[in-house]
């Protein structure tokens, strides 16, 4: 007798994929469509005690990424994007200010390896906080609470279950939870929560209780895909079918070695470019690298491999400095 599957979504939001019933839930836990996450202590110990071919290279490395200090948002106009390290971004699109997975400092047990390029106090008048999933390097309680204190009208848009956790920290925050393929409309801005192949967990027994995902943002004639944390799967290929070709794709490239352990849940620089090609993205911007040492490769490895492989494949990419203001341009102006 097979396990009973139920389906969850937010019935108050529209669903952009026809016939999608909602996210599958097995024994109270969200699951991926094609991959079952396996993070048992046995695999973790095997990884930690396995030899790392790049160990000496990591020890020799003097990682010092380029930083363009962001002193203020007062003069920032139009549609822009600012990489703040790891998966954290500030975006201004269609007259709205948006923060993605903000982490302003260290996370539990892991120190930050790159300087945060701004005083967090500059992030004012934020309209939306987008959280891709509940892992500590993406959902940081002190950063969220500081943002909420400075932006009491900011709304949270996130996966099912994640909002309940954040609401326990910030009871006054307006929370909108979504299942995959569910969309929020705000004037000229549309935000859609989309699939990712990943997992969720913040404590011993809460694995799979909160949904993980990606985002598509559309506004002012622009579309920006934000991949969250994900392994490589067929969810990239369906993006053009649902939204047309994205102008920008923000895709992870780091925490990818060793592949036997990381591959199901983190795309490599090579996978990232394959995903970009499948989406036919006009410009690809890397993320999830250079900030926290979470895997076997040196911090400089992912952007170097990504840039070289993009050159070989003739894929258009942009690798901004930390804090650099990137102007988002429509296709006919790129």
Description:
Helices cover 19% and strands 23% of the residues. The chain is an alpha/beta fold and 334 residues long. The strands form 3 sheets. A 7-stranded mixed sheet has the order 2-11-12-13-14-15-16, with helices on one face. A 7-stranded mixed sheet has the order 10-9-8-7-6-5-17, with helices on one face. A 3-stranded antiparallel sheet has the order 1-3-4, with no helix packed on it. Strand 14 (222-226), helix 5 and strand 15 (248-252) form a beta-alpha-beta unit. Helix 7 packs across helix 8. It is globular, with a radius of gyration of 19 Å. The protein starts with a strand and ends in a 7-residue tail after the last strand.
Strand content: 15-25%
What are the low-pLDDT stretches, counting only 5+ consecutive residues below 50?
none
* Approximate shape: globular
Cα(first) to Cα(last) distance is 55 Å
Cα gyration radius (Å): 19 Å
Main sheet characteristics = 7 strands, mixed
Helix content: 10-25%
- Count of β-strands: 17
- Mean pLDDT comes to 95
Element-by-element helix/strand order: EEEEHHEEEEHEHEEEEEHEHHEHE
- Helix/strand/pairing category: alpha/beta
Please report the number of helical segments.
8
Order of strands, widest sheet: 2-11-12-13-14-15-16
